[in-house]
Amino acid sequence: MSRLPILVKLTAAFAAATLLMLAAAALFVYLRLRADIDDRVNANLRSRASAAATALTEGTDIGSVAVEDPEESFAQVLSTVGVLETAGSTVGAAITREEVNAALRRDLVIERAVPGIDGRARILTVSQQSSGGPVVIAIGQSLRDRDEALSSVVTSFIVGGIGALLAASVAGYALARSGLAPVEAMRSRASDISASDDVEGLPLPIAHDQIRRLGETLNDMLRRLRDSYDRERRFVDDASHELRTPLAVIQTDLEGALLAGGHSAEVEAALLSALDETHRLVRVAEDLLVLARAAGGQLPIDRRPVSVPDLLSWTHGRFIGVARGSHRSITITAPPGLVVIADQDRLEQVMTNLIDNALRHGDGDITLAATLANGGVTIEVRDEGDGFPAWFAPRAFDRLTRAHSGNRDSGAGIGLAIVHAIAQAHGGNATIEVGAPTTIRIWLPTDPRS
Fold this sequence. Notes:
The protein is α+β, with helices and mostly antiparallel strands. The protein has helices spanning about 5-60, 65, 95-105, 145-190, 210-260, 265-295, 310-325, 345-360, 415-425, and strands at about 75-80, 80-90, 110-115, 120-130, 135-140, 305, 330-335, 340, 365-375, 375-380, 430-435, 440-445.
């Protein structure tokens, strides 16, 4: 029950309450009608018993005054030795000898099936003094009419109750849906809100109730989150800008020191290591700047026709030396003439991150492939590594997420986030394949206006 939607729960609760009220009403009517019919039957039995006693005293036929319908009523005069007189269609004694003895002491009301009478019968016994001694007058009436009337009432309540229950369920569903409409409106709007939205917040219902207060609280929370996010974005943007100049100076000084020469092997190795780390810091600063601008919807895109085969050739030329140093190769598979309207520098940044990932974390030869697909171009970077684990797929393009966190050289965890941000800025997307071989794809529309 706890897993059911709240709309279903409210409808079920409304239907259950309606069912309980209908059941209570049906029980009340049933018991009240039965009591009324029983009172009328008892009054009829006493009237007929009185008439039978008078007839017995006067010596006239009791059947003419105590029997209404021979198939549904009867009258008997009994003593301890058996039936003395009978009227109606009953066969044999209506009460037992023990009951006769009890009836001589007090009046009895007995219900049982009596041979010759339709259905069960109610029997009233009264004692009477006759010329031959004390006797018992038993007056009986079939309860078939009562039972049929009660059965008809039950059937009517069942049929009408089912209809009423269905109508109540529909009404309950409509009321619950109407009551939850403001919540659904807030949920729908919340699913569309992103960190860069400048909209006021969630829609609020007109009524000043708990749902409105919930919406106001959530809007306050969204404003606090947006302010916090804006402060974080400005910090990353400012930090990236501030780092670029000193890093450029350090990089220039290290390159100058290496060009000057005259260093020992140890010093030259240290300078090369420092220069490599400086290059890495420069790339991280650039990536952080891209992330900050992309998150704020301010990533500049200089759209020009870009030859995809030329882009892959540029990537090959830049990284083939590093790949050969690791005894690996880079191959290109792309039909000629593939062109996208995109930012050349941003796409080169994407390819740099993808190849850097493949060289750092992948294995075997690297393949760069491009094909036409779905009104755009798909660029695929694939190596012969073990691939991405299944748990990593939903978070592959989140910032600071790494598939191999235990690896010392696993990087900052923002490379794929950069790829995704640039692809989205071009109106495209980025995806990964779970399992071997390690495969990352980006899709870019050939014409962003479409």
